[in-house]
Design brief:
The chain has about 270 residues and is of the alpha+beta class. The chain folds into 2 domains: about 1-155, no CATH class; about 165-265, no CATH class. It has helices at about 15-20, 35-45, 130-160, 165-175, 205-215, 245-265; strands spanning about 1-5, 5-10, 50-55, 70-80, 80-90, 95-105, 110-115, 120-125, 220-225, 230-240. Strands 3, 4, 5, 6, 7 and 8 form a 6-stranded antiparallel β-sheet that branches. It has a two-stranded antiparallel ribbon with strand order 1-2. The termini are far apart. Residues about 1-10 and about 60-65 have low confidence and may be disordered.
């Protein structure tokens, strides 16, 4: 049994195979597959609890129990957020074991990932002979940084942004998600508030609003399609949600780094 997407349910055989890395095959004598279940248990020994698990999508039926996967483990809960560790690993040797710190904002279920500016991530190759020492070092570094994380969050809540600052932040944020910024019709659409709790102009709220709107594709883009006559026709549609977990992590890490630039008055540099 375990937590999957916030509910206490039975782990499927596929998820069990993923966590146990059952079909990891050593590609060399130096290869040391790190089982995700062992990593989870190591974090549990430090008092963390599993809060969710998700796996990447794949159309290859031969890889359905070997895909890249993500496990969130809760450190603590305070001020409407859960502070967490995000574990990324794979059962097809496509990625190293990666450990990131972040928070889950409960009011909107936003999963935010910290950049290395605040708490550096840990990357452990599957050739490491003793990964648990590195995991313990990561936990030790993380726990020492929790007071600083809270101070940074409170500083974000205290920093008020002008309309010009919010607009500049929104434009730079969209550029992190879109290859062609010129296709975005109204960049300021990502600053539209979705709920009363998000009313305000402090950096913490604005950061969360922009993150949610970009992740959910709450803005419009111009696109092109070929007509039956062979002409190129322009049309408009909503942006796609960011559903790929690896891309979502990359975007969130970059967005947090951008928010740190805003906090430290480096956004215009």
């Amino acid at each position: 049994m375990g937590f999957i997407k916030g509910y206490y349910v039975r782990i499927t055989s596929t998820q069990k195979a993923i966590l146990e890395n059952s079909d990891f095959k050593a590609t060399s004598t130096k290869y040391r597959p790190i089982k995700t279940i062992d990593v989870i248990n190591r974090f549990k020994s430090h008092g963390l609890k599993v809060s969710s698990m998700e796996e990447s999508r794949t159309r290859d039926v031969n890889k359905q129990d070997k895909v890249r996967h993500f496990v969130r483990m809760t450190i603590d809960e305070q001020q409407g957020i859960k502070r967490e560790v995000v574990i990324m690993n794979s059962s097809d040797s496509t990625t190293s074991l990666r450990l990131h710190a972040g928070v889950l904002r409960l009011v909107c279920n936003n999963g935010l990932i910290f950049s290395d500016d605040l708490i550096p991530a840990e990357k452990i190759k599957h050739t490491h002979h003793n990964p648990f020492t590195r995991i313990d070092e990561f936990v030790d570094r993380l726990l020492k940084a929790l007071d600083e994380e809270q101070q940074v969050r409170e500083a974000m809540m205290s920093k008020m942004l002008s309309q010009n600052d919010i607009a500049h932040f929104a434009r730079k944020a969209i550029k992190l998600a879109e290859k062609d910024y010129s296709k975005v019709l109204d960049p300021l659409a990502v600053t539209i508030v979705q709920r009363p709790e998000d009313l305000g102009k402090d950096l913490w709220v604005v950061y969360n609003v922009i993150q949610e709107n970009i992740m959910q594709g709450n803005y419009r883009k111009s696109r092109e399609r070929l007509t039956e006559d062979g002409d190129i026709q322009e049309y408009f549609s909503s942006a796609h949600k960011i559903t790929d977990k690896s891309r979502a992590m990359q975007f969130n890490i970059a967005l947090h780094a951008l928010a740190m630039e805003v906090l430290h008055n480096r956004m215009y540099s």
